[in-house]
């Protein structure tokens, strides 16, 4: 994962719908990389709908097949040092595993920052590519997730990835 920061001047954006086993996702990109990824949405946009670049479709396919992938991400709004560290750490969580908000916060340098880590993940512009669905509460409950179906989508993503023990201890929100 490489993050290119583009503040101020907004790059020319394009978007497309990507199909997945769990529904459609909207991907927005520019020449520098993926700007955002969002689940289950309807797109109202002033910028163009297009065929995504091969790098995006290859990473998308690899994610759903459980294979490693590399993707360039384009950050157009500042997220802050702690938030970026949380996203970097989260991007390294292996498929089929989960971490707690507390673990992520500690690794990011703030052992009391579980809520701040959750807020950083709530603003994650690249879910799936930065797999925030793999972060849960320390009591085993799922915590929140963006999108129209929220924690239900998070649960289904974790079940799709076959996270051990999910059917019992991690199913409540």
* Sheet/helix structural class: alpha/beta
Helical content stands at: 25-40%
The major pleated sheet works out as: 4 strands, mixed
> What is the 3D shape?
globular
The order of strands across the largest sheet is 4-3-2-5
For the CA atoms, what is the radius of gyration?
Answer: 16 Å
Beta-strand fraction estimate: 15-25%
Number of helices: 6
How far apart the termini lie comes to 29 Å
Tell me the total number of β-strands.
8
Mean pLDDT, to the nearest integer, reads 86
Low-pLDDT residue intervals, each spanning 5 or more residues: 167-173
Model description:
With 173 residues, the chain is an alpha/beta fold. α2 packs across α4 and α3 crosses α4. A hairpin with a 2-residue loop joins β3 and β4. The protein has 6 helices and 8 strands.
SSE order and pairing:
Layout: E1 2-5, E2 14-18, E3 25-30, E4 33-39, E5 48-49, H1 54-65, E6 72-75, H2 81-90, E7 99-100, H3 101-107, H4 114-122, E8 135-136, H5 150-160, H6 166-169
Helix pairs in contact: 2-4, 3-4
Outline of the structure:
The chain has 173 residues and is of the alpha/beta class. It has 6 helices and 8 strands, in the order E-E-E-E-E-H-E-H-E-H-H-E-H-H. A 4-stranded mixed beta sheet has the order 4-3-2-5, covered by helices on one side. Strands 1-6 form a two-stranded parallel sheet. A two-stranded parallel ribbon has the order 7-8.
Task: Describe the structure using short key phrases.
173 residues; alpha/beta; four-stranded mixed sheet; two-stranded parallel sheet; 6 helices; 8 strands; 31% helix; 18% strand; globular; disordered C terminus
